[in-house]
Automatic annotation (TrEMBL):
Name used for this protein in its record: Uncharacterized protein
Residues of the signal peptide: 1-24
Highest taxon, organism lineage: Bacteria
Annotated keywords: Signal
Species in which this protein is naturally found: Thiothrix lacustris
Signal recorded as keyword: yes
Length: 131
């Protein structure tokens, strides 16, 4: 009886938190994240986030420091938690290289988002253009 009550309480908590039992912990494997630099200058990509629909919040996928030259495209393979076969979107945080005497002179951080898409194993994100 004691264990039955514990199981019932656990299931009720999961229901209240809106955590789907079938998808909890599932991972979208090897997603190609496609980014195009259209800023007119080099950029430094500093973070990649994805939207986790069950909890309705952004989750950080990676803190990085990837330099992307002007008019360059970059594809990055990542696996995303909790979004397999779910609609999500990506948010890229980046800084534009400023001209001047300083070697590491970058603008304030900016973000660009992808269009919504369904995350599938070995799939691809829509092209994320950095304006």
């Amino acid at each position: 009886m004691k264990y039955r009550n514990t199981i019932i309480r656990t299931l009720l908590c999961l229901a209240v938190l809106n955590v789907p039992l079938a998808t909890a912990g599932e991972r979208c494997q090897q997603l190609n994240i496609n980014i195009a630099n259209e800023t007119g200058a080099a950029v430094k990509i500093t973070a990649v986030d994805y939207f986790e629909p069950q909890q309705r919040q952004w989750r950080n996928e990676a803190q990085i420091e990837q330099i992307l030259t002007n008019n360059a495209n970059w594809t990055w393979k990542r696996s995303l938690e909790l979004v397999r076969d779910a609609t999500t979107r990506l948010r890229i945080t980046y800084q534009t290289k400023l001209s001047g005497l300083h070697l590491d002179n970058y603008s304030a951080k900016r973000t660009a988002e992808s269009a919504p898409f369904t995350c599938t194993d070995n799939g691809s994100s829509p092209l994320i253009k950095l304006p």
